[in-house]
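Write out the 3D structure for:
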Amino acid sequence: MKEVLQEQGFQQTGCTIQECAVRAGRMLNVQKMVAGGIGKVGRTYAINISMVDVESGRIEKSITRKYGGEIEGLLEILRDIAHEMAGKRLLTLKISSSPKGAEVFISDKLIGKAPVARSVTHGSNLKILLRREGYRDWEKTLIMTGDQEVSAELAPINGKPGKSSSRKWLYIAGGAVAAGAAVAILISSGADDGPPAASETLPGFRWPPR
């Protein structure tokens, strides 16, 4: 395309995007041309893409998007616009996790941290993976036939947390500090709680304390 336009002496100066698309389309002997631009105001990118019918010179379809993030993220935005321009149906996929903040991978690609939303082509076969430190990986395979909301309950690696205790534990360093000795004192919250239950374990103890 570039070689053909150079041979025809095509110059983009002095014409609008629409006019240039029509002129270039006629030289290339195509029916449709897609043209547009990307601007930036502050930290926000503005993308405006139009499809022009070369014969009539009319804009058949125009898509505008705003995006705030790293410049690499524009690639995914432009991919979605290309799908929409080609007439492919786009669906919305929303992913959340409990606890929040799990890394979300779709087809082995990191797309962000939950909660997150993405546009996905209709019929896509997706492998979804959520990962968070201290929790087991969560996986699901999904075929997009409509808008989807996925909620992932992440399980702790050491099993489900036990029932929280109302007891308060105070650690006091013993005299033999070099030996790492420590004693634990149970402080009653009011009424006599009695001795700790056999299943109750002491919280982790950090030494030296911070």
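The chain has three domains: 1-85, 89-159, 162-210.
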